[in-house]
Amino acid sequence: MKERLAKFLAHAGVASRRKAEVWIRLGSISVNGQIVTNVATLVDPQTDRIDVEGKRVRTKRQNYVVFNKPKGVMCTLEDPHSRNTLTQWLPPKLGRIYPVGRLDKDSTGLLLLTNDGELANRLIHPRYKISKIYLVDIDGLFKADDKKHLERGIVLEEGRTLPCKVEILVIGNKISRLRFELREGKKRQIRRMLEKLGYNVKSLQRISIGPIELGHLKEGKWRILQPREITELKKLTGLGISVTIREK
């Protein structure tokens, strides 16, 4: 299947799509031995040879990983302030994989990481409304009437949140526990929604993204997704491609 040259280079981890387009215009890319300068050039990664400044670009093996993020870990691969990042928890053998969406530093739980840019983009795109489930502990007594406010949507700086589902698991004088199901991913959304209603979040854990569940994966541990899980994610996002992963 053909795709834009810049998109192929981005998915191959050579450069961002924007940077790849600059390289194309500068004549740094050749396809089957011919220099191309048109950013709309289409290539077939299975049959075409693509070179960047004379060096062949090979498609890299796609990795799909679930990680149970501990509290205090930044959802980034690098940090200029030398804070705790994902790189310190994931082995080099996984290659350069990127988080699909984010969890803030103080949140824990399920994080997907992959070098499959197309799938990652679809999983976080609002169009696909992928379900994400969270367990949230708040300080103090939760007022049952506030459940309706949360489910209808809360007005934040960037607009009203989409309708969501909220289940009250525990109501206590010191701690109440809620289960949220969201289909969007605004920055620190649940924390900000609850803050608007006067609640302080004590802990927040994501337990699923679409069909992928955290299950019994221990905090700080990771695992490779099973082929059937990857297939389910692709079908959910309209890719609909079966995949086979070969373990080394």
- Averaging pLDDT over every residue, what do you get? 90
Largest sheet: 9 strands, mixed
Shape: elongated
Termini Cα gap: 26 Å
Structural class: alpha+beta
Low-confidence spans? 241-248
Number of helices: 6
Named at the architecture level, the CATH assignment of the largest domain is 2-Layer Sandwich
User: What's the name of the CATH homologous superfamily of the largest domain?
Assistant: Pseudouridine synthase I, catalytic domain, N-terminal subdomain
CATH topology of the largest domain: Alpha-Beta Plaits
Order of helices and strands: EHHEEEEEEEEHEHEEEEHEEEH
CATH class of the largest domain: Alpha Beta
* Quaternary status: single chain
**Cα gyration radius (Å):** 21 Å
* DSSP helix fraction: 10-25%
- Give the total of beta strands: 17
Question: How many domain modules?
Answer: 3
Strand content: 25-35%
How would you describe this structure to a colleague?
The chain has 248 residues and is an alpha+beta fold. It folds into three domains: 3-56, Structural Genomics Hypothetical 15.5 Kd Protein In mrcA-pckA Intergenic Region, Chain A (Roll), CATH 3.10.290.10; 64-126 and 211-236, Pseudouridine synthase I, catalytic domain, N-terminal subdomain (Alpha-Beta Plaits, 2-Layer Sandwich), CATH 3.30.70.580; 131-209, Alpha-Beta Plaits (2-Layer Sandwich), CATH 3.30.70.1560. Helices cover 20% and strands 28% of the residues. Strands 7, 8, 9, 10, 13, 14, 15, 16 and 17 form a nine-stranded mixed beta sheet that branches. Strand 5 (50-52) and strand 6 form a beta hairpin. Helix 1 (5-11) packs across helix 2 (17-25). The model is unreliable at 241-248 (pLDDT under 50).
